[in-house]
Amino acid sequence: MATRQNSSSGKQKSPRVQVVLPEELCAQLTFLAKKESRTVSNMAKVLIQEGVDSLITEYLSKSEESTNTSHTESFRSSLETQQSRRLRGAPRRIKLTKP
């Protein structure tokens, strides 16, 4: 759980999270931070944000696909269960009015 502290002015600071990293991963993070002229903490924040955004996008796209598929299947099955009816008369023309 992230902890939130108050500053000396009483305003709340951003939530803090502690993470324990293996030496190799910490070295890679430090390398990337130096390459982009960032602090290690800021680089970790950027990478976490990119990963979270990517996973949320992936999750939402899978959710939409499953929802669309279920709607399509239910619509198709309802159409297939309907009895066919004969149309009466010739099709009507639609008049479009100009504004």
From TrEMBL:
Compositionally biased spans, kind Basic residues: 85-99
Region feature (Disordered): 62-99
Domain CopG-like ribbon-helix-helix: 14-54
GO biological process: regulation of DNA-templated transcription
Compositional bias segments (type: Polar residues): 75-84
Name the UniProt record assigns to this protein: CopG-like ribbon-helix-helix domain-containing protein
InterPro entries for the chain: RHH_5, Ribbon_hlx_hlx
